[in-house]
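ESCALATION

Customer reports they have been waiting on this structure for their group meeting. Please prioritize. Original submission:
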Amino acid sequence: MQLKIFIILILLVLTGCKENKLEPIELHNKQHVTYLNQYAWSIDHFASETKYAPRTLQDYKEHVSTIRTEGHIDLTPFIDKEVIETGYILHEKTDHYN
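Update from on-call: job pushed to the front of the queue and completed.
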């Protein structure tokens, strides 16, 4: 009887030791892909996502200034709104702001 229990326990342990070989699937926001395609860029992989609560963007003045001067994007109209900043690593290399 003890041998049967021991064998069952070994089988349970071995069953739980399967290696999971699922490949991660990255889904990108279609609007982001369309926007980047306008510049002939394509996404290699997702890098980051930062959410700014409404009326907190002004606390990141240096970051907002960098986005305006180097990225040529003015976030002033969105200061009072929730902003989600998404970063991607591109296939292409750029000489400018990434």
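Sent to customer with the following note: The mean pLDDT is 82.
Escalation resolved.
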